Amino acid sequence: MGQYLQLGICSRIVIQKERTAKLNVSIEKVTEALDKVMDMSLFERGDTEEQYIFTIKEFIVLDQLNQFLEFQFSLYPQQHYKESFETALKAVSEQSSLQNILELAKAKKFSCFQRNIITDEILVNDWHGLKVEYDMWIMFVEGKLVMETYNNFLRYFEKQVRTSSKNWSISGAFRCFID
């Protein structure tokens, strides 16, 4: 069974406090590690008893998401998705809150704007990785893939999107996974 190449915006990051305690690592150290893969200034931290939760700032989403998606969709070479892109963009532009955008993505009405939760690992010290749960707004899903150790390619792709999207700070929350 293959996996799908998925690209999108990280809307929320969840880390179990129990895991950080087992590794004896502070949330500041975790935030530093996360900042190496994403711009953590785009997120607000809220804690529960069991979890650290980082949520993308609503004003950034409302200000930039639609234009960012429009630009990314314009770079996509396959024209047979054009109608899907336009329909999804219209739906996103009609949302007035972060919660509404989350609900739209959860509904999975569009192949080019849907929610997925992906678990990955970040290196928090020289020897240990920490499991991180990324709640993503997926804007591209490609084929079934069977790939091994393509993380460097995926990080390269993330940097390309961020570099080409400097007009939108929301691009600092862009991630790319195979899941």
Proportion of residues in helical segments = 25-40%
Gap from first CA to last CA: 11 Å
Shape: globular
How much strand content do the residues show? 25-35%
Uncertain runs: none
Query: Can you give the mean pLDDT?
Result: 89
Number of helices: 6
The domain count comes to: 1
Give Rg in angstroms: 16 Å
Structural class determined from secondary elements: alpha+beta
Q: Give the H and E element order.
A: EHHEEHHHEEHE
Count of extended strands:
6
Largest sheet: 6 strands, antiparallel
Give structural notes:
The chain has helices spanning 17-23, 27-35, 58-75, 82-93, 98-107, 151-164, and strands at 3-16, 43-47, 51-56, 114-123, 129-145, 174-178. The chain has 179 residues and is α+β, with helices and mostly antiparallel strands. It has one domain (3-178). Strands 1, 2, 3, 4, 5 and 6 form a 6-stranded antiparallel β-sheet that branches. Helix 3 (58-75) runs antiparallel to helix 4 (82-93). A hairpin with a 3-residue loop joins strand 2 and strand 3 (51-56). The mean pLDDT is 89. It contains 6 helices and 6 strands; from the N terminus they run E-H-H-E-E-H-H-H-E-E-H-E. Helices cover 39% and strands 32% of the residues.
Task: Quickly list its features.
single chain; 179 residues; alpha+beta; 6-stranded antiparallel sheet; 6 strands; 39% helix; globular
